Amino acid sequence: MKNSDRRSFIKKTALAGMGLGLAGTSSGMYEMSDKEKGKRVGMIGLDTGHSVAFTKSLNDPLAGDKYGGYKVVAAYPKGTDNIEEWKKRIPEFTEEIKNQGVEIVNSMEQLLEKVDVVLLTCIDGNKHLEQALPVLKAGKRLFIDKPFAGTLSDAYAIVEASKHYNVPMFSSSSLRYIDGVKEIAAGEIGKIIGAETYSPAHIEEHHPDLFWYGVHGVEILFTIMGTGCKSVKRTFTENTDVVVGIWDDDRIGCYRGIREGKGSYGGTVFGEKGITVLGKYTGYNPLLEKITEFYDTGIVPVSTDETLEIFAFMQAAEESKNRGGISIDIESVMQKAKTKR
To answer: What does the mean pLDDT of the chain come to?
Structure first.
């Protein structure tokens, strides 16, 4: 699709998305004071435990100013259409969210009338373009939970829409804030020579393999290595993935995806002054702090260029697998995705 056609698609889809509906509603239980206006968070997609965890943290009366006073006040439950394991849990998660004092609404339009900013937590990346467009059109700052999109071309379309409507948005895995990353960024081991990261890499049939779960370990890799990966080669077996990327300065970064045995998150980082092992994953709260800072400032903590390269890396890994493990040029993957719509 030409660029002009894609812009037309964005506009049309945004208008259509405003009319999405879901039967069933409940009256709101959480009343915000005038002082709290501007801090109203809306949530889209109650088909993941992330929605419950995020709400419990943000709406915790003991949180104080940890999250800048932001509270989830309304939620639109509709999430995945195709992933049955999670689709069937929407009623359960909706009830848990409702018990946190959140109003359950029956359309995107109703949600956007009641909130100032949005958390898109739908577990299905294939829904994210459709769900993000009306939010961006309405001028609401937006965080998109992983996976950012279900295809690389959708990822580019979301970024284009953010620019078109001049509304900031970002996406990040909470693994970006794993223990040890701050110290490495501060130069503890000097210039980064390379890194090896790992995470669970369960596969879901409606997403490219690594988009679904491997994204968390790949995001750790890019947090350490930065952008600039030029080629990707993947070795795949039923139980394990090994994906090797070569950066444009000839540094090598490696991701290991785990589907058998103990699953965990971490990595080893090689620097000019030392070698260090990343620490423990500490949960969602560091990410929530970054999200609420972003809501206040409009400054994205993770650039869209880096997010797009992360997903191009994983798409290149998919193509490498499909082509017998050959090396795939990332730039060619990006260009194909840009022109696909």
So the answer is: 91
* Phi and psi angles of residue 321, each rounded to the nearest 5 degrees, phi first: -60, -45
Report how far residue 271's alpha carbon sits from residue 259's, in angstroms, rounded to the nearest whole number: 29
Name residue 315's amino acid: Q
- pTM score: 0.89
pLDDT tens, residue by residue, 142-165:
999 999 999 999 999 999 999 999
Question: Within 10 A of 136 (CB to CB), how many other CB atoms are there?
Answer: 24
Domain ranges for the chain, please list them: 3-171, 175-286+307-340
pLDDT digits (tens, 9 = 90+) for 85-108: 999 999 999 999 999 999 999 999
CA distances from residue 168 to 135, 215, 275, 295 in whole angstroms, order as listed? 11, 22, 36, 9
Are 341 and 157 spatial neighbours (Cβ–Cβ below 8 Å)?
A: yes
Q: What is the CATH number of domain 175-286+307-340?
A: 3.30.360.10
Distance CA 72, CA 251 (A): 42
Q: Which CATH architecture has domain 3-171?
A: 3-Layer(aba) Sandwich (3.40)
User: Residue 72 class from Cβ within 10 Å (0-12 exposed, 13-18 middle, 19+ buried)?
Assistant: buried
* Sequence-ordered list of residues with C-beta below 8 angstroms from that of 34, at least 6 positions apart, any chain: none
Distance separating alpha carbons of residues 68 and 294, to the nearest angstrom: 10
128-137 vs 152-165: helix crossing angle, rounded to 10: 0
